[in-house]
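Friendly challenge for the regulars: who can give me the structure tokens for this chain first? No prize, just bragging rights.
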Amino acid sequence: MIRNLGNIFKVEDLRRRIFFTLMMLVVFRIGSFIPVPNTNANILQQMMNETQGVFNLINAFSGNALQNFSIFAMGIMPYITASIVVQLLSMDVIPAFSRWAKEGEVGRRKLAQFTRYFTVVLALIQSIGVSIGFNRAAAGFIVDESVWSYSLIALSLTAGTCFLMWMGEQITDKGIGNGISILIFAGIVAGLPGQVGYLAEDFFKDKDQLFLGILKMVGVLLVAIILIVAVIYIQQGVRKIPVQYTKRVVGRKMYGGQSTHIPMKTNAAGVIPVIFALSLLMFPQTIAQFWQGNPVADWIIVNFDYTKFSLGMALYVILIIGFTYFYTFVQLNPIQLSDQMKKNGGFIPGVRPGKATTAYLTKVMNRLTLTGALFLAAVSILPIILIILAGLPQQVQIGGTSLLIVVGVALETLKTIESQLIKRHYKGFMHK
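First reply, four minutes later:
Bragging rights claimed.
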């Protein structure tokens, strides 16, 4: 293991990418403690300690940046929401977006540029709402309630989100792994020690029931271990579709004739569907939290709460399954795969090229994606069921969802490093 770890530092490009990613994460953590001007974070911390709700989950994802009300308080969620909306609109909803999605690299750049602009708009609107809402919920949170003060706070929060968006893109381009996922990973890992402390304090607060507290802690640890093993097992699952290429004679050389395969993962979408589902489900609930007392806002708060047996839990499961299918088929299009195989003289043994190949690949992908989607949904709601049945604190639910994301992102990053090492003929971590 130590020898394999040393292989990383033998590759200059890989070493540079890892150091760049680490430096970006250091900047991210420093920014999580830079306070927004004209605010009193102590009052906000008191309010969040007294209330258990959607803000605790957002705070866990941001590495306590929301609790500190730093310039990164809103995290990367506005960018994720903008990405979801743009991808949905690209599916023949807006003709221009659909045309850009089919134009290759040039079209993707146009969509990315629009996503950035849309992120700024969403971040600005959300920052104004967060400032006003928190000041209503916690009197004295805003030191100076003038228009200029609110404008400064909104601009600071929006600039923080835009900087995180830029950092994520830089990590993706010059670092290791998906930059947005890495930032969420870093925020969760930074907040995990605090969550473990809350759990220990809750389990052992009653000295007369010390044995029961130990049993609860052991049960949570066992569930966490099972969750980690299950995520790794499903993420590693691959269905290999055999492909045979016909021989072609070009000039004096013969091409093709080799056998290969198309690797189709059980869960090709990774943990992105969980992040997308949480982002979309938390958006209306976050807005409604600031308007408590209004009948519509109260209905949204009660029914969109996915931590209880309610409409919110059903929507949470449906969104995870839907985004798993959506993200998988965006990444791996059966029609494009079939066309590429046909152009290069490839075929699946026993399946006719063209429409029959497309139908076969679609059927296989549907079955694999269903397994991955049901797994993600089951793992996501398991901690919630434990809370309801065993009376565990909310930190278990936050920790369960966080652990799912952390393990998934860590595994994907490890695979990226592995592929870089194997490409340069070095033995990797997962090499047998």
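The two ends are 12 Å apart (CA to CA). The CA atoms of residues 364 and 370 lie 10 Å apart. Your move, everyone else.
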